[in-house]
Amino acid sequence: MNSESVKSIKPQSIKVGICGFGTVGGGSYKLLQNNGEEITRRVGCAIDVSRIASRSLNSGDVDSAVKVSKDPFDIVNDPEVDIVIETIGGFDPAFEVVRQALANGKHVVTANKALIAERGNELFAVAEENNVTLAFESAVAGGIPIIKALREGLSANKIEWLAGIINGTGNFILTEMAEKQRQFADVLTEAQQLGYAEADPTFDVEGIDAAHKLTIMASIAFGIPLQFDKTYTEGISRITPEDIGFAKQLGYRVKHLGIARRTGSGVEMRVHPTLIPRKQLLARVDGVGNAVLVHGDAVGSTLYNGPGAGADATASSVIADVIDLARQELVGLSEPLLPALGYLSTHDDLEVLPIEEIETEYYLRIPVNDVVGVLAKISSILQDFDISIEAVIQKELDSKTVPIVILTHKALEKKLNLAIAAIEALDDVSGEVVRIRLESFEG
Questions:
Q1: Which CATH architecture has domain 147-307?
Q2: Residue 9 confidence class, pLDDT cut points 50, 70, 90
């Protein structure tokens, strides 16, 4: 460290402003108040909330020393504020609040995964220009410190792949469907009543929330720019208790996973329902919990498991970032110690593969007329497209239509697409083929 990178004046206390005082903003304030003495001992100086911006908060609801206003730019433009916590959410006005704070030379801590995944490249550039840090541990997996693990703890490794249950709402729904043989729509209604799902649950159940988080993790794991628009996203609304039951018979559980993998052809980034072996640790994560499995070339596989949401859990990650930045200020660093995404230079030439180019195993459920020879025709089509069968379940039901369930060996997705189209064109196939990707995460 050269002398030019160290400031001559050390602050006696760090002033923090909180923009947005909902679940996460309020939880962050509460945690600083409740654990202030412990945090001061860790940092070496006090961390004080000096300003809060909220449309609904009254000044009597917080300490009398805290200035309360409705305009977050009061905080951004206050020269006494060292660190801005952004918990407004969304893009407007959150993007401009964060951008202006960074431009004003203030560190920013955000829990806004959509903002980082979709606009992070722009914001990190502003932070770099002004020698400040945009920290975002709380944007992924709530209280689980997965960003620090990927960027710091595993930095000696070449990350080969990662896979995560990174949306608690979807995991709760699939857990209830598996344990109680309930329909998706019924469990979703209960999740909304319990506060696990929003009135509009699209971001959770269709995988958009998980795709934001996966985009961020993949960027740090592989040293690539943030590319949310290239993350394949598929939700869980079409999963049925029937498919979950067949998966169980075959030794698997269905989980909604975010998967990122480095291959010889490029990088896979995909969110979709996935069959995983019941013995796999990820398969045992139930309810609203989150977990991320990371495989590095040196360390092997490591699992990070815990609460992925909630006021206290998310605030834990927010304040951990605040503590890191306070330490940086206290020792007088005039520029960030760590690159935002873990790499000083990114792999701009490392291609993100379209879903048609990925190779994996598959679960297929095919509704067929109960006639002789239909399985042979399906097997012949799969063979024509270089897809081999690992296992078959053919249910004998008191019905004219029966399901044939097939597990395949590893196959190229675009070839499977062609095979499914040919299978659905058979006279004795009575409906759409259900396809769920399968991953074993071996090695």
A1: 2-Layer Sandwich (3.30)
A2: low
DSSP secondary structure, 50-96, as one string: EEEE-SS--GGGS-TTSEEES-THHHHT-TT--EEEE---SSTTHHH
pLDDT averaged over every residue in the chain: 94
DSSP state of 150: I
The residues that bridge with 108 in the sheet, in sequence order, are 84, 134
Same-fold call for 3-143+311-331 versus 358-438: no
Whether a cis peptide bond, with omega within 30° of 0, leads into 93 is: yes
Structure tokens of 123? 């914001």
Residues identified as active-site: 213
Supply the pLDDT for residue 5. Answer: 47
Query: Mean pLDDT lowest for which of 248-252, 268-272, 332-336?
Result: 332-336
Residues 61-75 as b/e (b if ≥16 CB within 10 A, e otherwise) read ebeeebbbbeebbbb
Model confidence, pTM: 0.94
Residue-wise DSSP of 378-421 = HHHHHHHTT--EEEEEE---SSSEEEEEEEE-SEEHHHHHHHHH
Which residues, other chains included, contact 375 with Cβ-Cβ below 8 Å and sequence gap of 6+?
A: 368, 392, 394, 404
Q: How confident is the model at residue 349 (pLDDT cuts 50, 70, 90)?
A: confident
Q: How is the chain split into domains, by residue range?
A: 3-143+311-331, 147-307, 358-438
Q: How many CA atoms lie within 13 A of 120 on its CB side?
A: 31
User: String of b and e for 103-120 (b: at least 16 CB within 10 Å)?
Assistant: ebebbbbbbbbbbbbbbb
| Continuous segment of H or E residues that includes residue 113 | helix 113-129
What fold, for 3-143+311-331? Rossmann fold (3.40.50)
Identify the helix (H) or strand (E) that includes residue 324.
Answer: helix 311-331
Give the H or E element holding residue 276: strand 267-277
Give dist(CA 17, CA 25) in Å, integer: 10
* Identity of the amino acid at 305: N
Cα separation, 124 vs 116, in Å, equals 9
Give the whole-angstrom CA distance, residue 301 versus residue 392: 31
358-438 belongs to which CATH class? alpha beta
Rounded to 5 degrees, φ, ψ at 262 are -95, 125
Name the one residue in this structure whose structure tokens are 């991953």. 439
The pLDDT tens digits for 185-194 are 999 999 999 9
